[in-house]
Records
---
Amino acid sequence: MLDQNRTPYVDALIEFARSEPGRFNVPGHQGGVGADRSLFELVGQIGLTNDIPALIEGIDVGEPNPFQEAQHLAAEAWGAKRTWFLLNGASQGNQAMCMAVAHMGAELVVQRNVHSSVIDGMIMAGLKPTFAAPEIDPELGIAHCLTPETLTEALDRCPDAAAAIVVSPTYFGASADVAALADVAHSRGVPLVVDESWGAHLHFHPDLPQSAINAGADLVVSSTHKIVGSLTQSAMIHLSSDRFEAEIIDRCVSMTESTSPNSLLCGSLDAARRQAAVYGEELLTETIAALSEARSEIRSIDGLDVLDESLLRQKSVIGWDPLRLTIDARGTGTTGYRIAALGRQLANINLELTSDTVAVAVFGIGTGNPARVLRLVDGVIAAVDHIGAEPPSTKPEFAPPPPWGEPAMTPRDAFLGAQDVVPFTEAEGRISAEPLATYPPGIPNVLPGERLTRETLDFITDSIDHGGYVRGAADREMSTLRVVAE
Ligand SMILES: Cc1ncc(COP(=O)(O)O)c(C=O)c1O
């Protein structure tokens, strides 16, 4: 057992900075000496002092090696065999993971509503996906998880699968039966990869859904910054079995990261790991209690409801994460978008994700307390009161994302092949050469290689009109689209 109360990498950075080194290396601000004054306002002298480059003896080179120790501590904390720190988010984790899968074969089974970074990874790695559809909630218009039956059926269609990639928990906190999914995959000798970006905290409290590693996943991508509270963009990838080779993952992580890793991001992972491992259970107990209170308060507001353990009625869902507060806005006669926009305008509160039907507030591992719950509830009340005073509007049309287009070629062939650029409005029927994912939540509506339908093009336009944006297209204004030259 390692001492989880230590933060070796953070300590080594601080010790180095305190030694007042003569800085004649990168970064060019050299501890703040050459920084613009606005940068001091932004990150402070301490941030500039601790912005220390890679390859420094006693930090990440030589023995002992505090950087490696920090990763070992993280592996132990999450129950992994080996853990890598990632400085370009879980997006990097998904890309590296796809590269690692490609060493074992070209075909794989992928949950269709994976994050767009998995699609990018498949393009980079040249993988040929067989898609498995998640369970769709017809009332709320959101996707839940993958059932073991759907995975079985997808693996039947893809007997040479090198891996199966699933997402759990979802943006809305629904957890899949990862143990059963792992059984299905392993019974065919197929490794199971779980994108657990929204569940880095699950490992640290007995009342939360079981973590993917504990449930038997082989490789887990985790967006540590999302709930566990490291700095934005820092994340981890955990290996927990022999079904992947550590050396290959190592190579794929290096390939997808900068040769100038940021010490502050990296240090924040060491710090967040200590907080989760040592204080996680206590902090989560408080946060879970505060959120339970928040849910009852929001439920008592006329027209609002919240998603809770009722999610467990869904076939694909066996666990529910209470750190997501999903407000069901349907009873107010308006949309989740409108509630969130009014909350921002009237009370300066910012929610994580909105749709026609819901608005989702996210809490971190140690951020649920009565004062913050009050702030959220007051903001939501201000929004709902405002809506009540507006002239009655017609109830919003419920618009779930339309069915996915028919796949006509692999994502890589479409993305890298000969292309035409056509006006967005005239792209119907063409094969898309780029992925299109409306944000939030960043789930691809279109993959390279799929035929574009009128319904999907209209859905994307509607999403942009409601303040969303689209990731993946070369033309960020979305006036044109790149399609396969046929
Ligand atoms: C399921 C899932 N995977 C991966 C990512 C990418 O995470 P990051 O922003 O850390 O790159 C996200 C981001 O929202 C996500 O929801």
---
Amino acid sequence: MAPESAWDELPRVDVAIIGYGPVGATLANMLGQRGLSVLVLEREAAAYHLPRAVHFDDEVMRVFQSIGLAEAIEPTTHVSPGMRFVDATGKLLLDWPRPTTRGPQHWYASYRFHQPELEEVLRQGAARFPNVAVRARTEVFALDDAPGQMLIRAEDLASGRLLRIPARYVVGCDGARSTVRRFMGAAMEDLGFHEPWLVVDVLLSRPRPDLGDASVQHCDPARPATYVRGTGNRRRWEIALLPGEDAAAMCRPENVWRLLAPWITPEDAAIERAAAYVFHSAIATRWRAGRLLLAGDAAHLTPPFLGQGMCAGIRDVANLAWKLAAVLGGAPEALLDSYQSERSPHVRAYIEQAVRLGGLINTRAMEEALALGGGTARIASIKPRLGPGLAAGWAEASGTIAPQPRLSCGRLLDEAVGGDFALLARPGVEAPGAITDPAVQPFLEQAGAIAVVLRPDRYILGAARDAQELQTLLNAIPAGAEARRQFGDAA
Ligand SMILES: Cc1cc2nc3c(=O)[nH]c(=O)nc-3n(C[C@H](O)[C@H](O)[C@H](O)COP(=O)(O)OP(=O)(O)OC[C@H]3O[C@@H](n4cnc5c(N)ncnc54)[C@H](O)[C@@H]3O)c2cc1C
């Protein structure tokens, strides 16, 4: 270790976030909003510049709503009408339309966006909180356990100074090659998909409406490819690389244009950026070790065919943020055990669906699927349940995301209830603080419940069919959460 004089000691924070990608930045907003002291440590000077995420869903927009950023983000997005699967000749094999009207969560099912633009809004969002500090060009290289806290060792890359930072919890949002994961001793379970693909963003120099707004999966076994309509004049192609093709060479403009030739030429567009990736599918075996936690790509990797990698990371931090705040506010640390148990099976369902979809982008597999389905292979959009964790009361509906109706007062449900637990109830149910607005009644009727408790992340904790079940449900609200005191003497 370096001599003592070489170390700068920083004040202790509640939570240190390692990595300022979209997942770390969302978490910084969520914890900032909850009043915790947060330090973000990021190795790079600026956000990642190569082409990555282009799609997020209604649930993710709802998370952005919860941190007060949906209004800033929505104008930068484009609502996607869905995905079409065509064979090598362009013949339509399957149409997978997505609703272009608002869904039960108030938001649209499928948004297109430009990741650097989103990250900029998230970073500006985090800057609203005086209790959130960000240190760019700071690389974390070691994590040491200490009584009641972690000690982070990092290097300020601009000055070469070494930093020692105590933190009560450390969340590794440090991406696929996570340092935090290594210090946790967590392995990556291989889910079997590893393929090299070229990803190209172009900027149209003249309109090409014929390319369409829907994504297109070109199910050509000779070279599968995906087209995505980006925001503004940006268009994306993701193209499989073949065995023996050199990834760096394939990123050169002459090779990129050769691969794009079936769809577009330099007369129509300029290459904005091109990168070769190996798409992986893997999931960390351990998401928490004591005061160390993982979120985002550090915890799981998926091929991008469903556009769910970042979405899963945003869901991670929506699940984790309120639990961390509760534990730092006095709730038992065991609450954090439900983070991996709830999130890991959920993200696994998405990864497996993405791998399945990747397999279909191959004409023969698609034809077999069509034959099996009598000519109508279905690509279901999934909304899996959380894995086992906090589910309570009548568990029928628990672990699914609740709808977000607009209440009679004109406000959306989440805006009306804020960031804590919420109790939705039938009008006759006597429970202080319960929301009995007519707008929530269809949901309760559908659930067959007299009351439902929503968690701060808007997943359903559980439902109750009678007063006794309601009491059990209310008792299951973790101690330390505001709502327990609020609803505790109900029923
Ligand atoms: C081609 C492609 C298309 C995709 N399309 C989609 C899509 O449509 N929808 C979707 O939801 N997802 C998509 N994804 C996935 C998505 O881009 C990632 O899941 C997401 O960017 C991961 O975010 P993150 O914050 O977890 O990690 P990252 O964005 O990788 O951020 C990690 C950060 O940690 C920093 N860091 C690492 N180690 C250290 C250290 N030791 N000290 C300090 N800092 C460190 C890094 O510099 C980096 O900034 C796509 C990915 C690819 C490659």
